Amino acid sequence: MLGHRERSGRVRTGLYGARKNTWCRYWAMTQPSQPEFLQPPARIDGQITLAEADPGWAAQYARQEERIRAALGSLAVQIEHVGSTSVPGLAAKPNIDILLLVMDSADEAAYLPDLEAAGYQLQFREPEWYEHRFLRDFDPNVQVHVFSVGAAEAERMLLFRDVLRTRSEERELYERTKRELAAQRWAYVQDYADAKSSVIEEIILRARTG
Questions:
Q1: Residue 68: CB partners within 8 Å, gap ≥ 6?
Q2: Total structural domains within the chain
Q3: Minimal CB count within 10 Å: which of 57, 59, 160, 161?
Q4: Tens place of pLDDT for every residue, the chain, 210 residues?
Q5: 19 in a domain, yes or no?
Q6: Residue 120 lies in a domain
Q7: Is residue 121 part of a domain?
């Protein structure tokens, strides 16, 4: 998932890791500090399981959107289905990723108690990375990424989603990358996400330039 930015603090090398180019140098210089974890990430020490594309993911997202709107009302400025389950035809980890934009994601008192009352659990916060807040629920697996309106990362998430929805060659490239990496062993899911970074950035760059 694009919203899961690199959290390991490492710059990977190799085919799908950070490459020796302008973007790689920029990426290495702009990584913020580690998240403030409330719930530590679980080790997997194994391969990543990808599910085949499921048309039911859209309906699962719609139910979550209704749930968030019921909890927050007008405080939820924008809600979007993002990540691989938002792209028809794309294999994915079966997690429903949701982008939630509020006026000020740093103002947790304005929205977090209502989200927690609705059943979402705050996993970590990233004050130095667009004031990102990450919440989860587990039935089904739902991941909510909270940003402020206008956050650059939110724009990137939507751009990447839309490119994969509309450009079959980019979607096929991304799926090949995911499958090759998923077959490897990883200590944490985030390590797998880190390894996709260079391909993701290349797809975004092509979307912006042509």
A1: 76, 79, 98, 100, 115, 118, 144
A2: 1
A3: 59
A4: 554 443 433 333 333 343 345 445 444 445 556 889 998 888 999 999 999 999 999 999 999 999 999 999 999 999 999 999 999 999 999 999 999 999 999 999 999 999 999 999 999 999 999 999 999 999 899 999 999 999 999 999 999 999 999 999 999 999 999 999 999 999 999 999 999 999 999 999 999 997
A5: no
A6: yes
A7: yes
